[in-house]
Amino acid sequence: MKRAVVIGIGILVFGNIFSALYDVSVKWLSDDVNASTFLLVRQLSAVLMILPFWLRERAPRSNHIKLHLFRAHVGTSGALLLIMGLMSLPLATVSSLFYSAPLMIMMMGCLFLKEKMSGAQSVAGILGFVGILIILRPSEMNISGIAVLAGALTFAINQLALKKLPDTESPIVTLMLYNLFSVPIVVVFTIVQGVSGLSWQVLGLAIVSNAFLLVYQWLSVLAYRKAKASEVAIAEYTGLIFCVFFGWLWFDEWLDGLSWIGAGFIVLPSILLPWIFSGVSKRQVSSRIAEMHTH
């Protein structure tokens, strides 16, 4: 394996520690804080944290305001559902369900963007759906699990919407407008759900949460610049391992046997099928994994 690829994978594995810590930060919230209150504080603090970078680039603007509004509303709704799931479910369960997003991106790309789906991708989609059913267990259907799955769906929609933005638009614009435009709808969520548990601790956790995410995104950029996405993207799945470890270390959480099987059905097809089906490009599948995290 090339040295650059090894370094890229190493950076991405290290970055996934911060990705998992981003989820952990929600678990650190006290029981009297609701999801919308935390999300409002997080979005406001994110705007303030991004503002210096936006001003340093001389406050760039966008010609795609409607698309940014759409992404902000859809993404924020999903973020609220994900936070609700994290507050109720083990970290590893949430992470396993959320890794269905690449499969959703693949299927929606086929339906709405007329992208062709290979045999391997079709099998991966079917196995992933089976894995979701195993984790959710229809006989023990949990509203929190459905909320996480809906959050993954909104994430997939948001990622596909990014394809409509030109490559020439600065990523800082995308980050700034996403967080800024999300504030009004989060205010609505907060009015409906009510302000609960607002404190300096919540503000601190929101800032820490945003910092974890920014560090992860920065390390991701470094990793994907070291090597091709198809060569390093497989390391993204280490995020599930870190979520399992942190859940055990700090919250005494652990996946049961069936959940491990379900997680395997979701994660393993994307890793193994490119090698099983000789006519499928590893780059084609790996790029979907990379797409999930690099925006």
TrEMBL record:
Q: Which terms in the GO cellular component ontology are assigned?
A: membrane
EamA domain boundaries: 7-136, 146-271
Keyword Membrane recorded: yes
InterPro entries according to UniProt: EamA_dom, EmrE-like
Q: Which domain of life is it from?
A: Bacteria
A Pfam family per the record: EamA
Residue ranges crossing the lipid bilayer per the database entry: 35-55, 67-91, 97-113, 120-137, 143-161, 173-192, 198-219, 231-251, 257-277
Keywords annotated in UniProt: Membrane, Transmembrane, Transmembrane helix
Ranges in coiled-coil conformation: none
Query: Does the UniProt entry include the keyword Glycoprotein?
Result: no
Q: Which PANTHER family match?
A: ACYL-MALONYL CONDENSING ENZYME-RELATED, BLR2811 PROTEIN
Protein name listed in UniProt: DMT family transporter
